[in-house]
Amino acid sequence: MFKNIKQKLIKKFQKLTKKQRIILLVFLLMLSTTIAASASIAHQHFQKNKQIQENAAIEMKISSQLNSSASHIEDDDRKELNILLIGYGGAGHQGGMLADLIQIAHFDFENKTLAFISIPRDLELSLANAGYRKINNVFSSHMSGTEPILNAGRVTKELLSSLSNLNIKYFIAVDFVGFQRLIGQELGSIEVEVKENFQ
After folding, report:
1. Is 59 part of any domain?
2. Among 35, 66, 90, 170, which residue carries the largest CB count within 10 Å?
């Protein structure tokens, strides 16, 4: 079974364009980190038996300010590029609007390297007129206006730009539903049979 899955994945990957391969790499890394973080968080909540806030009833979607056309990327971005990656549970998950995954993807095109800088979700920051806030709460608390995800991502991006001293111009925010749509619609889906649930 695993051999057949491997062959299918190889064929799928070979058919992808360069743009699709980059997207797949970034989001697979996001997913793996999000799953690990979510499992740890769920265990902590189970042990401490804390009451978790109710889910916010808002429509979720993939939100990206990254222009996929290379002709629109500024000259400075052709040397190096910083993208903020935000992963969150979304509707139907406990604390779904809190950012479980916060990473900065640093592309160094001159040296052909890619580095990921992980930001602890429980990192507390002193904010003007708001006191101390955890970084994952900054994302959820700024979901407002006609485009809540874009607004929350913009505020988080600007805050982390100042904190890291990196010029972060773009961000990608995705929930679990958005990730499923990305794999299913953009990459043509990948079928994997899981016979047993995690215990």
Report:
1. no
2. 90
